[in-house]
Amino acid sequence: MTSRSVSNGLRQWLELLRWHKPSGRLILLVPAGWSLWLTPDAPPLAGLVSLIVVGGLMVSGAGCIANDLWDRRIDRQVERTRERPLAKGSIRISTAVGLLIVLLLLSLLVVASLPTPSQRLCLALALLALPPILLYPTAKRWFAYPQAVLALCWGFAVLIPWAASQANLNGGWPLLGCWLATLMWTFGFDTVYAMADRRDDANLALKSSALSLGSHALKTVAFSYALACTFLASAAVSAGVGWAFWPFWLIASIGMQKETWTLRGSNQPMTTYGQHFQNQVLLGAMLLLGLILGRIS
Predict the structure, then answer these.
(1) Which of 2, 91, 163, 266 could bridge 85 with an S-S bond, Cβ 3.0-4.6 Å?
(2) What are phi and psi of 208, to 5 degrees?
(3) What stretches in the chain show pLDDT beneath 70?
């Protein structure tokens, strides 16, 4: 086997897991960080943070494989996705299924490595998260707002870290506010992401919030971001986060609205929507940095 074939094979694996695009992995870890830094025990222990990061990467990779297995025939007909490994046949289906099982088992191993008092609750939450994660790719076939299903999946990135830290979900408004903020933020950025595929989705009779909302899509995204920032701010107040959080919150809140404003117009290049997605990672991370500094200030 030549070095070129090994390199090509590695690239196909990375593309299947989307690990060549770190934005999609980081954007799942951001709300997990919000959750950990809003708990009464913040700042969280380094070991717990490491486990949450590893578990998030495993679950994210599993979700990507499940998505591509469901959509491999559709992906061949969509401009943005036709070069994905399963769509173009560069990785066998059986191989992808095997890797999916491995990642799910590794995710369970992470749960088993969590502090003993929280293991049963985290396992229950992980099992509850599994059906929507695996079924989310089908939502575009039967639900007008599949981005809401993804938002529900993202919500577990708040619940599981909190449960791992506290061994309960009795978090009051800090937990509920963080969960609602995550749902709104996710619905917003994934609606923008779906805008890149509107033409292909319409031709294939697929559904998305970008199509269902029509001319109201950007207004809804802006409103979703405003709600997300409001919910997170109220959660921070309820958790007693210090003053250092607020400059970051203000910049991120304005940044989300500005990013949405720049999407006006019907002739946006496809890369614009991808850039918006990447910028949401930075803005979400800015909110996380604010929470961290607010906790230690």
Answers:
(1) 91
(2) -160, 160
(3) 1-9, 266
pLDDT of residue 278: 92
Nearest to 186 by CA among 226, 210, 222, 154: 154
Closest CA to 164 of 210, 113, 234: 113
Structure tokens at 92: 């066998």
**Residue 26: what pLDDT?**
84
Token pair 């995204």: residue: 221
CB 294 within 8 A of CB 43: no
In this structure, the number of other CB atoms found within 10 A of the CB of residue 232 comes to 31
What residues have CB less than 8 Å from 192, skipping those under 6 apart?
210, 221, 260, 263, 273, 276, 277
Q: What is the pLDDT of residue 5?
A: 57
Q: Which tokens in the block code for residue 255?
A: 């940044």
Planar angle of CA 269, 279, 171, nearest 5 degrees: 135
| DSSP of the chain | --HHHHHHHHHHHHHHHTTT-HHHHHHHHHHHHHHHHHSTTPSPPHHHHHHHHHHHHHHHHHHHHHHHHHHHHHHTTSTTTTTSHHHHTSS-HHHHHHHHHHHHHHHHHHHHTS-HHHHHHHHHHHHHHHHHHHHGGGHHHH-S-HHHHHHHHHHHHHHHHHHHHHSS---HHHHHHHHHHHHHHHHHHHHHHHHTTHHHHHHTT---HHHHHGGGHHHHHHHHHHHHHHHHHHHHHHHT--TTHHHHHHHHHHHHHHHHHTT-SS---HHHHHHHHHHHHHHHHHHHHHHHHHHH-
Cα–Cα–Cα angle for 235, 236, 238, rounded to 5 degrees = 65
